[in-house]
Amino acid sequence: MAENEDILVTVRNGVGIVTLNRPKAINSLNAVMVDGLQQALNAWEDDDAITAVLLTGAGERGLCAGGDVVALYHSARGDGSYARKFWWDEYLLNAHIGRFAKPYVALMDGIVMGGGVGVAAHGNVRVVTENTKMGMPEVGIGFIPDVGGTYLLSRAPGALGMHAALTGAPFSGADAIALGFADHFVPQARLADFAEAVVTDGHQDALNSYAEEPPASDLLAQRDWIDTCYAGGTVAEILGDLRGHDDPAAHAAAELIATRSPIALAVTLTAVRRAAHLPTLEEVLHQEFRVSVASMKSHDFVEGIRAQLVDKDRNPQWSPATLDAVDDAAVDAYFASAEPDLTFHEEQS
């Protein structure tokens, strides 16, 4: 495929190498990058000359900070057509990565948030470092974890995924392995050599040479209070249990959750719990598409991005303003048909 400045695609020694190339934006995904990666996977999937895919990001700050949400903000303030198509194409890509049969090696160094998780954590060879800073921070902008994130969050041990979803807080590479978002740990100082070894020796030899035992996971060590506090039926009950617990980390989680969009929190709780009962990534992405399209029409999606990334006053005015004001019907409406709903027919992939 033709290269462009936002995504670089090359082949070396039978390895298809994709570099997300917007380093000033920490490689935030736009439509060109989603389309470029999808085209590359389509071309390589049935090409016997291609033995593996290697995904990396340009610059020193991270693989990918997420989707280009400012573009989604402007679309939401207009007719919404760009946002809808972006999510449609992005989720088809996430599903394609999830079923890609060849080794798909994702180098998840530095910041890997939101959409970055979607293009990396559904791969089958997921590598983190001591500098990995991963997360699904959507509730902070009035949005709900997407890109198959609720599939992964719902399958994390105990309530660790719910803790990550409702706080939106970043977690380490070691935590990512513990949560099921990653597989292998390679020290950052050896990551470039590891990537070169993937190309020259194959991914398995590269892992044998460079992968190490990950550090202990801080989140895994906190499962006792996390599992206890996130068992509540509603976000309000969870907040009460967090505030009533004697662990200072529980109080810190409560304070963070209390700053998030109330409607986004309530929908996220429901979305993750529903995702746990959906057997495939495709079925979860189908649900997420409905939720994302509904989110785009909400007050909090536009307001959250405005406060965080447009005006940058960090002072969102959520509506409803409190959890008590969020009713069940408002939450249920996020899961209604997006008309048309996302489908996974071959001709659309």
UniProtKB/TrEMBL annotation:
It comes from the Bacteria. One of its GO terms (biological process) is L-valine catabolic process. It catalyses: 3-hydroxy-2-methylpropanoyl-CoA + H2O = 3-hydroxy-2-methylpropanoate + CoA + H(+). Its EC number is 3.1.2.4. GO terms for molecular function: 3-hydroxyisobutyryl-CoA hydrolase activity. This is 3-hydroxyisobutyryl-CoA hydrolase. Residues 15-335 form the Enoyl-CoA hydratase/isomerase domain. One of its GO terms (cellular component) is cytosol. Keywords: Hydrolase. The keyword Hydrolase applies.
